[in-house]
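Hello support,

Our group uses your service weekly, and this is the first time we've seen a run hang past the timeout. The protein is Subtilisin-like protease SBT2.6. I'm not sure whether the cause is the sequence or the server load. Input pasted verbatim:
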Amino acid sequence: MKMEATEFLCLHLIFLWHLAFGAHDVYIVAIEGEPVVNYNGGIEGFTATAVDPLEEMDITSEAVTSYALHLERKHDELLDSLLEVGTYKKLYSYHHLINGFAVHMSPLQAEALRRAPGVKYVEKDMKVRKLTTHTPQFLGLPTGVWPTGGGFDRAGEDIVIGLVDSGIYPKHPSFSTNHNTESYEPLPRYKGKCEIDPGTRKSFCNGKIIGAQHFAKAAIAAGAFNPAIDFASPLDGDGHGSHTAAIAAGNNGVPVRMHGHEFGKASGMAPRARIAVYKVLYRLFGGYVSDVVAAIDQAVRDGVDVLNLSVGPNSPPTATRTTFLNPFDAALLSAVKAGVFVVQAAGNGGPFPKTLVSFSPWIMTVAAAVDDRRYKNHLTLGNGQILPGLGLSPATHGNKSFNLVSASDVLLGSSVVKYNPLDCQKPELLNKKLVEGNILLCGYSFNFISGTASISKVSDTAKSLGAAGFIVAVENNYPGTKFDPVPVSVPGILITDVSKTKELIDYYNCSTKRDWAGRPVRFEATGSIANGLAPTLYNSAPQVALFSSRGPGVKDFSFQDADVLKPDILAPGNLIWAAWAPNGTDEANYVGEGFAMISGTSMAAPHIAGIAALIKQKNPKWSPAAIKSALMTTATMLDKGGRPIRAQQYAGEEIMTLVRATPFDYGSGAVNPKAALEPGLILDAAHEDYISFLCSIPGIDHHEISNITGSSCNTTKTHPSDLNTPSITISHLEGTQTVKRMLTNVADEIETYTITTRMPPEIALEVSPQAMTVLSGASRELTVTLTVRSVTGTYSFGEILMKGDRGHQVRIPVVAMGFNR
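Update from on-call engineer: The timeout came from a worker crash unrelated to the input. Re-ran successfully.
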């Protein structure tokens, strides 16, 4: 049958439509120029009122609206200048966290955009499993804890968390008062002030951020402070302070977007809590104890409820005084006396013993855990080998294989002398014609560890040279180096196993054809990089992170063991997504970004600070010791799979292995927020108890205690282990020793507890009574007796477990080392 002309025309138009639109995909494009959150004015001649980074972000303000419209016009102009109108469709313009847009277009159009000046990256959209980042879910807060306080929009209400850190980036959406939350009413009981930025004359506070001050007099006096880069204000020039503040009390449900991908939604542990900033850390030199002590003092005077310290001394004090009486810990003792709950990071000196930088029993010392979310990736070589690695990136295009080209084979000129070109930090040193369309193979130089090299710069190099992807291969062991996945916009992978790097290099060398002078003639090695964007969840979590500092705690600079269990508790501290200061320099891979995924006990501490705020909200009259007890006695020693928690450790030649964790790795165990809200029994302690503890330390100068604390020692003879803490530690047990613990029922009803013990056979552990009934609000004493049966020269680890008939469980870890009399 003959086709009518109009019918033919319609079919032809349908064919053209499918040609133009049917094969299209959605791409996310980022372009040069600051988004609203970073904008400081003066970009591309734009003359509207600049958005002040120190002012509360008001997305309806004239300045924000004008600049957002300016960015959107730029997006449209770029698309119209490169692509034919009608062959693409712009879906969204992004103004606030990234400067870019989402567009439905063909792969050829995407390639044209990718090559255009001013385009930072073009990424094909993909499905990513929605995850919060990620520890609130891992810890059970949304379902088990927040509902008891009125939901996430009430969790931590009117509790003030003070952060002694590197400041804050107040324009970040994690600290915005416009993020799906009711306005914050004034909190008259908090007396802190909000500094005015000297450059903009704007306040740092917005209701969520309730106080902001900086302390640098000691740094200035030492000649270390540079106002041009350190900011003589609470503004975070490092990134660390914004990160810790967001973990503790950042807004709930903030999208984490980077390189065109969303990595879940971030939330603080207590998303409704207020933030008080006390800046003491600076970009280049860290900080000084004098400034830290001044900040602690000010925070206590201002009226914070919880104080988070992701800072600490570099080592135990060199003076003769005990670790517990250095100015830092003495100031914190005063804070606790004033009713402030103090949280401090344990330190990042692990996995070696006696590396803690947090010493005192009045401080909650937090170790870092690896949670259940891991980012893995792999490289598939042309010979069929599959090499595991780290690569938080998309897969190579079409999941196809591409030729591998080593940076050493594509060098330009003689600039090798000045730079190390093999770490791919400078694209101008490499031959673009040879790299383009191939996977660039780079080395991991010492510059990554001690210099400015970063995986992010390798990604930029690969993108600027038109590479299909990149590989960074570690050829030498760097003891103590922690390798983390880094979000990048182009396919990339870091091979951290030196033996796998050797396999890769052997394959490359065998496959690359060279002339008589060793110059490459043909690159025949091939490979493909898998998609590393989606995390895998494991039941073998939590684990104690390799870097987390370990006990035993020490009582003086001679590193004699203390009769105090440290750390106290374990909380997530590995690969934690949270807010970042775009001008922060602490992590080279996140310069200019609004979020960062970093690790450290610095990240673990604010988890506990936020959870403590939730406990304080529910029990406003509880002392710091009571809150600490609730957290410790309800902690778990089991991972999500019901197995004993394990600790990352070295097993010769820096090879990581897993061993069963001990209290010197994790204290009482991993935090259990839901149980901590209802602990049943608590072990309380007051300021005079801590003074008695200090006075009981053998060889201590009582006059020094009086000078530093203002309190005198009485004549009562005690032992450090007599302090009423939710743990028992005796570092030098001879014969038999008896200690007592006073437990108070904080539940609403009477409860009867049966008491059992567990201890290795070399130490006998007995308790009296073996059952007790405790009225609501009443206290009962527990007598604990430890006896040496045999001397092993090592510590023994046990526990006292109290099970109540109304469901409460209270666990007290017991640590002792036996000696002959």
